[in-house]
Automatic annotation (TrEMBL):
GO molecular function: ATP binding; ATP-dependent DNA damage sensor activity; damaged DNA binding; hydrolase activity; zinc ion binding
Notes concerning its domains: The middle region has homology to RecA with ATPase motifs including the RadA KNRFG motif, while the C-terminus is homologous to Lon protease.
Protein name in UniProt: DNA repair protein RadA
Sites where the protein binds ATP: 101-108
Parts of the chain that traverse the membrane: none
Sequence motif RadA KNRFG motif, residues: 258-262
SMART domains: AAA (SM00382)
UniProt keywords, alphabetically: ATP-binding, DNA damage, DNA repair, DNA-binding, Hydrolase, Metal-binding, Nucleotide-binding, Stress response, Zinc, Zinc-finger
Spans annotated as Lon-protease-like: 357-467
InterPro entries: AAA+_ATPase, DNA_repair_RadA, P-loop_NTPase, RecA_ATP-bd, Ribosomal_Su5_D2-typ_SF, Ribsml_uS5_D2-typ_fold_subgr, Rubredoxin_2
Region (Disordered): 42-64
GO annotation, biological process: recombinational repair
Length: 467
């Protein structure tokens, strides 16, 4: 035996994570890359050359890209305008959409409504439920008005039976609720496990692509809000949507975190009622309570979700603290962002809140994710500390820097137009913004946080000189 052969025989086999593909020379219980437990398994030595070679000619020859037809690849609207907005116009034939969300948020209700509308237009829809009985789904369909002759219902948990239904019914749309409840008899493991979810997803995706059949999969989420199951599930599907909302409130929001056929920054707004779920085309009033009133501790900003401007009311409360480390509690606002803004206010605006508990929240369960709301958070905190309300009809838009300056934000004109439509007459914006004020609105440019507080009139007269 040659020396090279002996080295190959002695080469360690290695271990690989089934979730993310991370490799290691020794077995470990937890993946060092994705931090998942029990996903590292032994694998054989990597081959020195390719294992797959061409054995037969291609069934469909390659063609010039200009000769490829596009009629069959265009999105078909679902009939739910807010859902179509997130998807990029509708469902593309052969596309696989994963809709993930917490239990009870309304995923099944939304998809049953989509299935009923599609069936009402003459399309053949197969709704497979692995979590509820057929009778329970039928009662929900009756309550939301989704009883249609073209809507076929099956309650199954076996993958082979589901594929049999697809072969027999040949639907134009498949809804699978949920991917974690379906299991294959050919694969070891419990339903929802890594191997089962991967097998179910691969089989459903193959059926969707071969038939140009759009598929919507319902997925569970973990405690931290990520999609349950192997990470490869999100890579296999074409669209990943997150269904968000507080189960104690009626507002629901759908965001696309991955979309091969459309934008990933759009958001759809829905309202969950006793009779089903309905899209909200103008959700402006859902996120404001005292928009135009003189209430201390409040300030309004305009956030941009995709191409949709949404007004958000920021509320703040500052009370004396008896703790060595005062509380900084937030709801809908990033806590680290609030801590940074309070530090900038202390250093560059002369406002000390180190002896007070500060609470900051949004209205209607909205979530602030962009820096354009920094100025509104600062003004709301300042107003809460001084008990002086901001000037009536004021909206604040701007990012706060660590040196106290205000930085410009993108698409300011669209935000100002929405504020003017809602009745705001004053807008505090970063200095240097080359935007024309909408009719009936006055632009108040500010170069720094201290000047913005002066313009908002949130400090008492006796303290303004010190700002």
């Amino acid at each position: 035996m040659s020396s090279s052969s002996r080295r190959t025989a002695a080469q360690p086999r290695g271990f690989r994570c089934s979730e993310c593909g991370w490799t290691t020379a020794k077995w470990v219980g937890r993946c060092g890359e994705c931090q998942e437990w029990g996903t590292v398994a032994e694998q054989g030595a990597a081959p020195t050359g390719p294992r797959t070679v061409a054995t037969s000619p291609a069934h469909t020859p390659a063609r010039p890209i200009a000769d490829i037809p596009v009629e069959g690849a265009r999105a078909v609207p679902t009939g739910v305008a807010e859902f179509d907005r997130v998807l990029g116009g509708g469902l593309v034939p052969g596309a696989v959409v994963l809709l993930a969300g917490e239990p009870g948020v309304g995923k099944s209700t939304l998809l049953l409504d989509v299935a009923g509308i599609a069936a009402g237009t003459g399309r053949r829809v197969l709704y497979v439920s692995g979590e509820e009985s057929a009778g329970q789904v039928r009662l929900r369909a009756e309550r939301i008005g989704a009883l249609q002759a073209g809507l076929l219902l099956a309650s199954e948990t076996d993958l082979g039976t589901v594929l049999g239904h697809i072969e027999a019914e040949r639907p134009d749309l498949l809804v699978l609720d949920s991917v974690q409840t379906i299991a294959s008899a050919e694969v070891d493991g419990a339903p929802g496990g890594v191997s089962q979810v991967r097998e179910v997803a691969a089989a459903i995706i193959t059926a969707a692509k071969s038939r140009d059949m759009p598929v919507v999969l319902v997925g569970h989420v973990t405690k931290d809000g990520t999609v349950a199951g192997p990470r490869t599930l999100e890579h296999l599907v074409d669209v990943v949507c997150q269904f968000e909302g507080d189960r104690h409130a009626s507002l629901r929001m759908v965001r696309a975190v991955k979309n091969r056929y459309g934008p990933t920054d759009e958001v759809g707004c829905f309202e969950l009622t006793e009779t089903g779920i309905a899209g909200v085309s103008d959700p402006s009033g859902l996120f404001m309570s005292h928009a135009l009133a003189d209430v201390p501790g409040t300030c309004v900003t305009i956030s941009l979700e995709g191409r949709r401007p949404l007004p958000l009311e920021i509320q703040a409360l500052a009370v004396p603290s008896t703790l060595a480390n005062p509380r900084r509690t937030t709801s809908g606002v990033d806590s680290s962002r609030l801590a940074m803004i309070l530090a900038v206010m202390h250093r560059h605006a002369g406002l000390r809140l180190d002896s007070q508990d500060v609470y900051v929240s949004t209205i209607g369960g909205a979530r602030v994710v962009e820096p354009a709301a920094d100025l509104a958070i600062a003004l709301a905190a300042m107003s809460a500390a001084t008990q002086v309300p901001a000037a009536r009809g004021t909206v604040a838009i701007g990012e706060v820097g660590l040196s106290g300056e205000l930085r410009p934000v993108a698409t300011l004109g669209r935000r100002l137009a929405e504020a003017a439509r809602l009745g705001f007459t004053r807008a505090i914006v970063p200095a240097g913004s080359a935007e024309v004020a909408p009719p009936g609105m006055e632009l108040l440019p500010a170069s720094g946080l201290a000047q913005a507080m002066e313009l908002a009139r949130v400090a008492p007269v006796r303290e303004r000189s010190g700002l």
